[in-house]
Amino acid sequence: MNLNNLKKTVPAKLYKRGVDYFEQGSVEQLAEVATNRWNAIVSGTEDYEVSINVRKDGTIVGSYCTCPFESDSLCKHEVAVCLAIRQYKNVNGSSAVDVMAQLKTLKKAELLTVLEELMEKQPAVHHYLKEKFLETGEMDEEKARQLIRIAAYHAVRNEFIEWNRIDQALEGVEEVLEFLEGLDSRQDGEKIIRLSLLVIRECTSMLHIADDSSGEISSAIYESLEKVYVALAEWPGEVDEATVDRMLELLYPHILFALEQDTTDAASGLLEAVLQWSEKGDFASKFYAFIDKVIHSREMRNKAFGYTEERFRGYQLWVLQQQGDKEAVDAFCAKFHAYPAIRRAQMWLAFAAGEFEKVLQLGDESEKLDVKLPGLVLEWKKIRFKAYEKMGNTAAMIDLAFEFVLSGEEEYYFKLKSLVGAGQWPEKLSILLDEMKRSPRSRSLYLGILIEEQKLDELLDHCRRDLSAIEQLYPHLLADYPHEVNEIYTAYIYRLIDQASNRKAYWTACQKIKSFQIALGAQAAAGLVEEIKFMYPKRPALLDELGKVKLK
Question: What range(s) does the SWIM-type domain occupy (predicted)?
Answer without folding.
Answer: 48-86
